[in-house]
From TrEMBL:
UniProt xrefs under SUPFAM superfamilies: Amidase signature (AS) enzymes (SSF75304)
Gene3D superfamilies xref list: Amidase signature (AS) domain
Record key words, sorted: Hydrolase
Coiled-coil portions: none
Family: Belongs to the amidase family.
Matches recorded under PROSITE patterns: AMIDASES (PS00571)
A GO MF label: hydrolase activity
UniProt domain Amidase: residue ranges: 25-453
Classification via Pfam families: Amidase (PF01425)
Protein name: 6-aminohexanoate-cyclic-dimer hydrolase
Length: 475
């Protein structure tokens, strides 16, 4: 029996701190789990096991997670000397010459990196089945997607390979796989975690990096270890009042919670996703909170999606051409999946005026969105519109390469607003379908107010725990 598989990262670190286990024991156990589970799931696409064992044998920094195994997403998380492919054939030979600031902070926290996780190409789709690494499978049902673009991270954590893993979110890519895999996933406020040393933001203020975890306390303690501006940061989130770890278990008070099922694209919502929100609303009232149904009325939201896509497509141009400069060769359609290449071409066609207008409208949206928190502390809404779809749902057609875009818009209409406004948002695993598929519910708080989300999430975790639930592929 593996004595560590059911322990979260905080508990594993505590064993090391009390010298009841060594970092090498934790690392070896995690490597064994990866070797057992990964052939079925394809969650881990690069390994560095021997390097990890060597690191575990040497004196590690005394941090909150000394000796705990960890995985990095194969996107954004630059690690000196290791490939960073962005899930793309074009970048399969790209090897950064430095660590990103966030990776440096992970290492200072004492984490031991075991490898990289699967992602969709450039992190563009809410699934993880790219042509470079192949499809990643959901531990709850291997015929289904684990979500995306942090699907590899989610599958690795849900299956017990590691207790938590790095993830990023530019339109739901932490929250979507959290919902699909029955995990806790928090997207921090804009600027909460660093993006340096080179990037201001790779997709124009939309992306936040953090992690997928099984417990709320792991997410809070990891954010304590990484948050804060790095040198030269162009913007940063408001300072926290106290460590987030202290918010876990702290009474949230009687919160005013707005509930909405409306989405800007008019996408239908699966009955299980509706049930998840309705049941959560009743649970919140049982915990003493006030839940009032309302609408996130967004002026001009019929065109807001177009502005988001303009910024997103121009971000693809920025990413592709940035990689082109680093690799010293021009991109071509043969280097990318049809959807990515079509979105790149769409971004090239937008022009400077359209891009600047989209940026202005997105920033204006942030001001409009802030008004929805004048009389409400937190908004409750679905994370996605259906449980994890089957693999292949987001495939391109030869005559319609952008078709996955429209399918994705109907699947994730509730996620991008938090990216556009920069607000913190989380998906909490509070519901399972009769078929045994997890369904997350989403909460969005005021800009900079991760503290309220951690207090509320830990209250829900205590009242309605989820970590005892195990998928068919576990360990």
């Amino acid at each position: 029996m593996d004595p560590f598989i059911s322990l979260d990262a905080t508990a594993q670190a505590d064993l090391v701190r009390r010298r009841e286990v060594t970092p090498l024991e934790l690392v070896d156990a995690a490597i064994s789990r990866i070797e057992r589970c990964n052939p079925r799931l394809n969650a881990v696409v690069q390994t560095q096991f021997e390097t990890a064992r060597l690191r575990a044998k040497t004196p590690l920094p005394e941090g909150p997670f000394t000796g705990v195994p960890f995985l990095l997403k194969d996107l954004l998380a630059a690690q000196e000397g290791y490939p960073l492919t962005f899930g793309s054939r074009f970048a399969k030979d790209f090897v950064p010459g430095h660590d990103s600031e966030l990776v440096k902070r992970y290492l200072r926290a004492g984490l031991v990196v075991l490898g990289k996780t699967n992602t969709s190409e450039l992190g563009l789709l809410p699934t993880t089945e790219g042509s470079l690494h192949g499809p990643c499978r959901n531990p709850w049902d291997v015929t289904r997607t684990p979500g995306g673009s942090s699907g590899g991270a989610a599958a690795a954590v849900a299956s017990g390979m590691v207790p938590f893993a790095h993830a990023s979110d530019g339109g739901g890519s932490i929250r979507i796989p959290a919902s699909a895999c029955g995990l806790f996933g928090l997207k921090p406020s804009r600027g909460r975690n660093p993006t340096g040393p080179e990037l201001a933001d790779s997709v124009h203020w939309l992306i936040g990096e953090h992690a997928l975890t099984r417990t709320v306390r792991d997410s809070a303690a990891l954010l304590d270890a990484t948050e804060g501006p790095d040198l030269g940061a162009p913007y940063h989130a408001p300072p926290k009042a106290r460590p987030y770890a202290l918010e876990v278990g702290a009474p949230p008070g009687r919160l005013r919670i707005g509930l909405t099922l409306r989405n800007a694209v008019g996408a239908p919502v699966h009955p299980e996703c509706l049930s998840a929100v309705v049941a959560t609303a009743k649970r919140l009232e049982g915990l003493g909170h006030s839940v009032l149904e309302g609408n996130l009325q967004i002026p001009g939201d019929d065109t807001l999606g177009q502005h988001f896509m303009t910024a997103w497509a121009c971000g693809v141009v920025n990413t592709v051409e940035g990689l082109s400069r680093r690799l010293g060769r021009a991109p071509s359609s043969e280097d990318f999946e049809p959807f990515t290449w079509a979105l790149y071409q769409h971004g090239l066609s937008q022009g400077l005026s359209a891009y600047l207008h989209a940026q202005m409208e997105i920033l204006r949206f942030g001001r409009v969105f802030a008004r929805h928190f004048e009389d409400v502390d937190v908004w409750l809404l679905p994370t996605v519109t259906e449980p994890a779809p089957v693999l292949g749902t987001f495939a391109s057609a030869p005559d319609a390469p952008l078709a996955p875009l429209f399918r994705a818009a109907g699947f994730t209409p509730y996620c991008p607003m938090a990216n556009m406004a920069g607000n913190p948002a989380m998906s909490v695993p509070l519901h399972w379908s009769p078929e045994g598929l997890p369904v997350g519910v989403q909460f969005i708080a005021r800009f900079g107010d991760e503290a309220t989300l951690f207090r509320l999430a830990s209250q829900l975790e205590a009242a309605h725990p989820w970590t005892h639930r195990r998928p068919s592929v576990f360990g």
